[in-house]
Specification:
Elements lengths: L1 H27 L4 E3 L1 H10 L6 E5 L3 H6 L5 E3 L7 H6 L6 E5 L4 H12 L4 E5 L2 H7 L9
Parallel strand pairs: 1-5, 2-3, 2-4, 4-5
Length: 141
């Protein structure tokens, strides 16, 4: 019984450490803003007629074609020329980045910040969270 309590305590400690670590990393990210899908949807709707905001999908072409946020631009984060493609963009515009779940858009947003982009907003949970929230998805090219 004592052994089970120690194992349970060890597991709970590891889970707590993981959660604390994840929160600390999120709070320390001063490179770009991270917003929820509902906030992103509202921001996109509010700025739909403004040319200074770009919705940037950093997933593969296949993922993009299977469903994406309307009016988004697709530049694959894993492509060999990602950095070169990003450098062609206007650094003074605002960018909303997303991928499937957040890992690639985090890397893309960090790269963009290093390249001098001023306003970067990442959608927390990416396309997965967007779809789960029942928000509109465009298909095809």
């Amino acid at each position: 019984m004592k052994k089970q309590i120690y194992v349970l305590f060890a597991i709970m400690s590891l889970v707590s450490l993981f959660i604390l670590n994840k929160n600390v990393l999120s709070e320390q990210n001063n490179d770009f803003e991270i917003i929820s899908v509902s906030d992103a949807s509202n921001l996109i709707d509010k700025n739909k007629d403004i040319q200074d905001m770009v919705i940037l999908d950093v997933r593969t072409d296949e993922e993009y074609k299977s469903g994406h946020i309307a009016n988004s631009v697709n530049i694959d984060y894993k492509s060999s020329d990602f950095k070169e493609q990003i450098e062609k963009l206007d650094k003074n515009k605002s960018y909303i980045t997303y991928c499937r779940s957040g890992r690639r858009s985090t890397g893309a947003s960090q790269t963009m910040k290093k390249l001098g982009f001023q306003k970067i907003i990442m959608i927390q949970g990416g396309m997965t969270a967007w779809s789960e929230a029942g928000l509109p998805v465009s298909r095809g090219d």
